[in-house]
Amino acid sequence: MFTSHILNNPAAHVTFSAPATPAHDTSYLGLTESQQLALSCGRRVHRVCRGWFGIIHTLLDQPGVRCVTTRRGVTLDQAPCVHQSRVVDDTLHLFGLQQSMILRTDAWYSGFAIDIDRASGTVTRSLRFFDAYGERIFALESTAPEGFAPNLIRPFLDSRQGREHTHVPMPPYSQFQAQPSYMERLERDGIRLWWQMPGDLPLNEVPGIADLPRSRLLEILGTDYAMRVRPEALAMNLLAECLQAQGPPMSLRLSVSNVGACQRTIGPLLEANIRENTLELSQGPDARLSLALKGVETIWIVRKPGYQGEILGIECHDIHGHLLLAIDDHGQPSCPWGEWASLLRILQPRTTAWLQT
Q1: Which CATH number goes with the domain that contains 128?
Q2: What residue range is the signal peptide (predicted)?
Q3: What is the enclosing helix (H) or strand (E) of 294?
Protein backbone atom coordinates (compact mmCIF):
# COMPACT_ATOMS: atom_id res chain seq x y z
CA MET A 1 0.00 0.00 0.00
CA PHE A 2 1.28 3.45 -0.89
CA THR A 3 1.05 6.38 1.50
CA SER A 4 1.27 10.05 0.65
CA HIS A 5 2.13 13.11 2.71
CA ILE A 6 0.30 15.28 0.14
CA LEU A 7 -3.09 14.08 1.38
CA ASN A 8 -2.16 15.10 4.94
CA ASN A 9 -0.78 18.49 3.96
CA PRO A 10 -3.52 21.05 3.23
CA ALA A 11 -0.91 23.53 2.05
CA ALA A 12 0.47 21.17 -0.59
CA HIS A 13 0.84 22.76 -4.01
CA VAL A 14 -1.51 20.82 -6.32
CA THR A 15 -2.28 23.28 -9.12
CA PHE A 16 -0.71 23.60 -12.55
CA SER A 17 0.57 27.09 -13.21
CA ALA A 18 1.99 28.01 -16.60
CA PRO A 19 5.77 28.54 -16.55
CA ALA A 20 7.34 31.50 -18.28
CA THR A 21 7.66 31.22 -22.05
CA PRO A 22 11.17 29.98 -22.94
CA ALA A 23 13.37 32.45 -24.78
CA HIS A 24 13.52 30.25 -27.89
CA ASP A 25 9.74 29.77 -28.09
CA THR A 26 8.27 31.84 -30.95
CA SER A 27 4.73 30.51 -30.69
CA TYR A 28 3.63 33.74 -29.01
CA LEU A 29 4.54 35.49 -32.30
CA GLY A 30 2.17 33.23 -34.20
CA LEU A 31 5.00 31.13 -35.68
CA THR A 32 5.17 27.36 -35.54
CA GLU A 33 8.54 25.67 -35.13
CA SER A 34 8.62 24.63 -38.80
CA GLN A 35 7.93 28.24 -39.89
CA GLN A 36 10.74 29.49 -37.69
CA LEU A 37 13.17 26.94 -39.17
CA ALA A 38 12.06 27.75 -42.73
CA LEU A 39 12.88 31.40 -42.04
CA SER A 40 16.29 30.36 -40.66
CA CYS A 41 17.46 28.17 -43.55
CA GLY A 42 21.05 28.97 -44.33
CA ARG A 43 24.22 28.22 -42.42
CA ARG A 44 22.86 26.21 -39.49
CA VAL A 45 19.44 25.05 -40.71
CA HIS A 46 19.02 22.95 -43.86
CA ARG A 47 15.83 21.84 -45.54
CA VAL A 48 15.51 18.06 -45.99
CA CYS A 49 13.86 16.43 -49.00
CA ARG A 50 11.06 13.90 -48.67
CA GLY A 51 12.99 10.64 -48.72
CA TRP A 52 11.77 9.83 -45.21
CA PHE A 53 12.38 6.07 -45.29
CA GLY A 54 15.93 6.53 -46.58
CA ILE A 55 16.75 9.04 -43.85
CA ILE A 56 15.45 6.80 -41.07
CA HIS A 57 17.19 3.65 -42.33
CA THR A 58 20.48 5.49 -42.89
CA LEU A 59 20.69 7.25 -39.53
CA LEU A 60 18.95 4.88 -37.12
CA ASP A 61 22.01 2.66 -36.64
CA GLN A 62 24.47 5.51 -36.11
CA PRO A 63 26.20 5.69 -32.70
CA GLY A 64 24.62 8.06 -30.21
CA VAL A 65 21.33 8.47 -32.09
CA ARG A 66 18.09 9.00 -30.15
CA CYS A 67 14.47 8.91 -31.35
CA VAL A 68 12.13 11.60 -30.04
CA THR A 69 8.34 11.64 -30.45
CA THR A 70 6.45 14.75 -29.33
CA ARG A 71 2.90 15.93 -28.95
CA ARG A 72 2.03 19.37 -27.55
CA GLY A 73 3.93 19.37 -24.28
CA VAL A 74 4.96 15.70 -24.03
CA THR A 75 8.25 14.22 -25.24
CA LEU A 76 9.44 10.59 -25.29
CA ASP A 77 13.18 10.32 -25.91
CA GLN A 78 14.92 6.95 -26.24
CA ALA A 79 17.91 5.22 -27.78
CA PRO A 80 16.72 2.89 -30.57
CA CYS A 81 17.46 -0.83 -30.49
CA VAL A 82 15.64 -2.11 -33.56
CA HIS A 83 15.74 -5.80 -34.42
CA GLN A 84 12.96 -5.96 -36.99
CA SER A 85 11.31 -3.57 -39.44
CA ARG A 86 8.63 -3.66 -42.09
CA VAL A 87 6.91 -1.21 -44.41
CA VAL A 88 3.15 -1.21 -45.01
CA ASP A 89 2.08 1.42 -47.55
CA ASP A 90 3.53 4.70 -46.19
CA THR A 91 4.03 3.38 -42.66
CA LEU A 92 7.34 2.15 -41.25
CA HIS A 93 7.10 -0.32 -38.34
CA LEU A 94 10.19 -0.72 -36.15
CA PHE A 95 10.39 -3.31 -33.35
CA GLY A 96 12.89 -4.07 -30.60
CA LEU A 97 12.81 -6.24 -27.49
CA GLN A 98 11.49 -3.45 -25.26
CA GLN A 99 10.36 -0.80 -27.74
CA SER A 100 8.32 -0.19 -30.84
CA MET A 101 7.86 2.70 -33.25
CA ILE A 102 5.27 3.25 -35.95
CA LEU A 103 6.14 6.09 -38.34
CA ARG A 104 3.23 7.13 -40.56
CA THR A 105 5.20 9.14 -43.10
CA ASP A 106 2.15 10.10 -45.16
CA ALA A 107 1.57 12.71 -42.42
CA TRP A 108 5.15 14.05 -42.61
CA TYR A 109 5.14 17.34 -44.47
CA SER A 110 8.59 18.89 -43.95
CA GLY A 111 11.95 18.22 -42.33
CA PHE A 112 15.05 20.17 -41.30
CA ALA A 113 18.64 19.32 -40.34
CA ILE A 114 19.97 21.57 -37.58
CA ASP A 115 23.67 22.25 -36.96
CA ILE A 116 25.53 23.61 -33.95
CA ASP A 117 28.93 25.31 -33.83
CA ARG A 118 32.01 23.46 -32.61
CA ALA A 119 35.68 24.41 -32.53
CA SER A 120 36.24 22.15 -35.52
CA GLY A 121 33.27 23.62 -37.40
CA THR A 122 29.55 22.94 -37.49
CA VAL A 123 28.10 19.49 -36.79
CA THR A 124 24.59 18.24 -37.45
CA ARG A 125 22.90 17.48 -34.16
CA SER A 126 19.23 17.08 -35.01
CA LEU A 127 16.80 16.16 -37.79
CA ARG A 128 13.24 17.27 -37.08
CA PHE A 129 10.10 16.37 -38.97
CA PHE A 130 6.79 18.25 -39.03
CA ASP A 131 3.20 17.77 -40.10
CA ALA A 132 1.18 20.02 -42.41
CA TYR A 133 0.26 22.27 -39.46
CA GLY A 134 3.88 22.97 -38.57
CA GLU A 135 3.91 20.83 -35.43
CA ARG A 136 6.91 18.64 -34.70
CA ILE A 137 6.01 14.96 -34.71
CA PHE A 138 9.36 13.13 -34.73
CA ALA A 139 13.08 13.84 -34.47
CA LEU A 140 16.43 12.09 -34.66
CA GLU A 141 18.99 13.54 -32.23
CA SER A 142 22.69 12.74 -32.09
CA THR A 143 24.56 12.65 -28.78
CA ALA A 144 27.88 11.76 -30.45
CA PRO A 145 30.51 14.54 -30.22
CA GLU A 146 30.81 14.68 -34.02
CA GLY A 147 27.05 14.54 -34.60
CA PHE A 148 25.69 12.94 -37.75
CA ALA A 149 28.33 12.33 -40.41
CA PRO A 150 28.06 14.97 -43.20
CA ASN A 151 28.35 12.34 -45.93
CA LEU A 152 25.22 10.65 -44.53
CA ILE A 153 23.18 13.84 -44.34
CA ARG A 154 24.21 15.46 -47.64
CA PRO A 155 22.28 13.11 -50.00
CA PHE A 156 19.01 13.99 -48.25
CA LEU A 157 19.33 17.78 -48.35
CA ASP A 158 16.88 19.68 -50.53
CA SER A 159 18.24 21.76 -53.39
CA ARG A 160 16.19 24.71 -52.06
CA GLN A 161 18.07 26.11 -49.09
CA GLY A 162 16.99 29.74 -49.08
CA ARG A 163 14.87 31.33 -46.39
CA GLU A 164 11.12 31.03 -46.92
CA HIS A 165 8.08 32.48 -45.26
CA THR A 166 5.73 29.51 -45.19
CA HIS A 167 2.02 29.41 -44.41
CA VAL A 168 0.47 26.59 -42.41
CA PRO A 169 -3.26 25.97 -41.90
CA MET A 170 -4.84 26.14 -38.48
CA PRO A 171 -4.92 22.72 -36.81
CA PRO A 172 -8.40 21.18 -36.63
CA TYR A 173 -8.25 21.03 -32.83
CA SER A 174 -7.80 24.83 -32.62
CA GLN A 175 -11.21 25.42 -34.15
CA PHE A 176 -14.44 24.78 -32.32
CA GLN A 177 -16.14 21.65 -33.52
CA ALA A 178 -19.42 20.77 -31.91
CA GLN A 179 -19.51 17.13 -30.92
CA PRO A 180 -22.84 15.33 -31.32
CA SER A 181 -24.52 14.79 -27.98
CA TYR A 182 -25.37 11.24 -28.93
CA MET A 183 -24.26 8.46 -31.24
CA GLU A 184 -26.28 5.81 -32.92
CA ARG A 185 -26.73 2.89 -30.56
CA LEU A 186 -25.29 0.49 -33.12
CA GLU A 187 -22.16 2.65 -33.37
CA ARG A 188 -21.75 2.83 -29.59
CA ASP A 189 -22.18 -0.93 -29.25
CA GLY A 190 -19.67 -1.48 -32.05
CA ILE A 191 -17.07 0.66 -30.24
CA ARG A 192 -17.55 -1.31 -27.02
CA LEU A 193 -17.24 -4.63 -28.85
CA TRP A 194 -14.08 -3.41 -30.58
CA TRP A 195 -12.53 -2.46 -27.21
CA GLN A 196 -13.53 -5.77 -25.60
CA MET A 197 -11.66 -7.82 -28.23
CA PRO A 198 -8.38 -9.15 -26.76
CA GLY A 199 -5.46 -7.10 -28.02
CA ASP A 200 -2.95 -4.41 -27.16
CA LEU A 201 -3.98 -1.05 -25.73
CA PRO A 202 -4.73 1.02 -28.86
CA LEU A 203 -3.37 4.55 -29.12
CA ASN A 204 -4.89 5.56 -32.44
CA GLU A 205 -8.43 6.33 -33.50
CA VAL A 206 -11.26 3.85 -33.67
CA PRO A 207 -11.27 2.22 -37.12
CA GLY A 208 -13.73 4.09 -39.31
CA ILE A 209 -14.22 6.97 -36.81
CA ALA A 210 -11.07 9.03 -37.21
CA ASP A 211 -12.44 12.24 -35.68
CA LEU A 212 -13.59 10.74 -32.36
CA PRO A 213 -11.62 12.32 -29.47
CA ARG A 214 -10.00 9.90 -27.06
CA SER A 215 -11.90 11.31 -24.08
CA ARG A 216 -15.19 10.79 -25.91
CA LEU A 217 -14.16 7.21 -26.69
CA LEU A 218 -13.59 6.48 -23.00
CA GLU A 219 -16.92 8.07 -22.09
CA ILE A 220 -18.65 5.75 -24.56
CA LEU A 221 -16.91 2.71 -23.06
CA GLY A 222 -18.37 3.57 -19.66
CA THR A 223 -17.12 2.83 -16.17
CA ASP A 224 -16.59 -0.86 -16.93
CA TYR A 225 -13.46 0.08 -18.86
CA ALA A 226 -12.60 3.72 -18.09
CA MET A 227 -12.93 6.03 -15.08
CA ARG A 228 -11.95 9.67 -14.86
CA VAL A 229 -9.67 10.86 -12.04
CA ARG A 230 -10.28 14.14 -10.21
CA PRO A 231 -8.71 16.49 -9.26
CA GLU A 232 -6.12 16.24 -12.01
CA ALA A 233 -3.36 18.22 -10.30
CA LEU A 234 -3.50 16.13 -7.13
CA ALA A 235 -3.58 12.92 -9.18
CA MET A 236 -0.37 13.77 -11.04
CA ASN A 237 1.44 14.64 -7.81
CA LEU A 238 0.26 11.40 -6.23
CA LEU A 239 1.28 9.41 -9.30
CA ALA A 240 4.82 10.81 -9.27
CA GLU A 241 5.15 10.39 -5.51
CA CYS A 242 3.92 6.78 -5.49
CA LEU A 243 6.10 5.78 -8.44
CA GLN A 244 9.15 7.30 -6.79
CA ALA A 245 8.38 5.72 -3.38
CA GLN A 246 7.83 2.16 -4.61
CA GLY A 247 10.33 -0.56 -3.73
CA PRO A 248 11.59 -2.62 -6.66
CA PRO A 249 10.90 -0.58 -9.83
CA MET A 250 7.79 -1.66 -11.67
CA SER A 251 8.09 -2.61 -15.33
CA LEU A 252 5.80 -0.19 -17.15
CA ARG A 253 5.22 0.88 -20.73
CA LEU A 254 5.36 4.56 -21.73
CA SER A 255 3.57 5.56 -24.93
CA VAL A 256 3.38 8.82 -26.89
CA SER A 257 1.52 9.08 -30.19
CA ASN A 258 0.64 11.75 -32.73
CA VAL A 259 -0.62 11.88 -36.30
CA GLY A 260 2.75 10.84 -37.75
CA ALA A 261 4.47 8.71 -35.12
CA CYS A 262 3.78 6.29 -32.29
CA GLN A 263 6.59 5.42 -29.89
CA ARG A 264 6.43 2.93 -26.99
CA THR A 265 9.07 1.73 -24.55
CA ILE A 266 8.94 -0.94 -21.83
CA GLY A 267 11.23 -1.08 -18.82
CA PRO A 268 11.58 -0.59 -15.06
CA LEU A 269 10.57 2.93 -14.07
CA LEU A 270 13.61 4.15 -12.14
CA GLU A 271 12.69 7.78 -11.52
CA ALA A 272 9.51 9.88 -11.34
CA ASN A 273 9.56 13.55 -10.37
CA ILE A 274 7.69 16.79 -10.93
CA ARG A 275 9.97 19.76 -11.58
CA GLU A 276 8.73 23.19 -12.66
CA ASN A 277 5.28 21.78 -13.45
CA THR A 278 6.76 19.06 -15.65
CA LEU A 279 6.37 15.35 -14.97
CA GLU A 280 9.68 13.60 -15.64
CA LEU A 281 9.86 9.81 -15.95
CA SER A 282 13.03 7.82 -16.56
CA GLN A 283 13.73 4.20 -17.43
CA GLY A 284 17.44 4.86 -17.19
CA PRO A 285 19.65 6.57 -19.78
CA ASP A 286 17.96 4.75 -22.65
CA ALA A 287 14.45 6.23 -22.25
CA ARG A 288 13.17 9.49 -20.77
CA LEU A 289 9.76 11.15 -20.86
CA SER A 290 8.63 14.66 -19.94
CA LEU A 291 5.07 16.01 -19.78
CA ALA A 292 4.17 19.67 -19.27
CA LEU A 293 1.37 19.49 -16.71
CA LYS A 294 -0.22 22.75 -17.83
CA GLY A 295 -1.43 20.89 -20.95
CA VAL A 296 -3.20 18.12 -19.02
CA GLU A 297 -6.97 18.59 -19.00
CA THR A 298 -8.27 15.15 -17.97
CA ILE A 299 -6.81 11.95 -16.51
CA TRP A 300 -8.33 8.50 -16.95
CA ILE A 301 -7.77 5.02 -15.54
CA VAL A 302 -8.44 2.44 -18.26
CA ARG A 303 -8.47 -1.31 -18.64
CA LYS A 304 -8.38 -3.37 -21.81
CA PRO A 305 -8.59 -7.14 -22.37
CA GLY A 306 -5.16 -8.28 -23.55
CA TYR A 307 -3.79 -11.51 -24.95
CA GLN A 308 -2.39 -12.69 -21.60
CA GLY A 309 -4.56 -10.81 -19.13
CA GLU A 310 -6.00 -7.37 -18.59
CA ILE A 311 -4.00 -4.27 -19.42
CA LEU A 312 -4.31 -1.54 -16.78
CA GLY A 313 -3.22 1.98 -17.61
CA ILE A 314 -3.47 5.67 -16.92
CA GLU A 315 -3.96 8.25 -19.68
CA CYS A 316 -3.51 12.03 -19.81
CA HIS A 317 -5.59 13.99 -22.32
CA ASP A 318 -5.40 17.60 -23.49
CA ILE A 319 -8.20 20.16 -23.62
CA HIS A 320 -9.33 18.84 -27.01
CA GLY A 321 -9.71 15.29 -25.68
CA HIS A 322 -6.61 13.97 -27.45
CA LEU A 323 -4.21 11.48 -25.88
CA LEU A 324 -0.96 12.99 -24.59
CA LEU A 325 0.54 10.11 -22.63
CA ALA A 326 -0.32 6.53 -21.70
CA ILE A 327 1.35 4.49 -18.96
CA ASP A 328 0.34 0.84 -18.62
CA ASP A 329 1.54 -2.53 -17.34
CA HIS A 330 1.47 -4.06 -20.87
CA GLY A 331 -0.75 -6.90 -19.63
CA GLN A 332 1.80 -8.70 -17.47
CA PRO A 333 0.22 -12.07 -16.63
CA SER A 334 2.33 -12.72 -13.52
CA CYS A 335 0.60 -10.25 -11.22
CA PRO A 336 -2.49 -8.72 -12.82
CA TRP A 337 -3.65 -7.03 -9.61
CA GLY A 338 -0.39 -6.19 -7.91
CA GLU A 339 1.37 -2.95 -7.06
CA TRP A 340 0.38 -1.14 -10.26
CA ALA A 341 -3.32 -1.84 -9.68
CA SER A 342 -2.93 -0.79 -6.04
CA LEU A 343 -1.41 2.51 -7.15
CA LEU A 344 -4.24 3.13 -9.61
CA ARG A 345 -6.82 2.42 -6.90
CA ILE A 346 -5.28 5.22 -4.83
CA LEU A 347 -5.90 7.61 -7.71
CA GLN A 348 -9.42 6.29 -8.37
CA PRO A 349 -10.85 4.06 -5.58
CA ARG A 350 -13.85 3.10 -7.72
CA THR A 351 -11.61 0.85 -9.83
CA THR A 352 -11.88 -1.63 -6.94
CA ALA A 353 -15.15 -2.70 -8.59
CA TRP A 354 -13.11 -4.09 -11.50
CA LEU A 355 -11.79 -6.79 -9.15
CA GLN A 356 -15.26 -8.34 -9.11
CA THR A 357 -15.56 -8.61 -12.92
Answers
A1: 3.40.1570.10
A2: none
A3: none
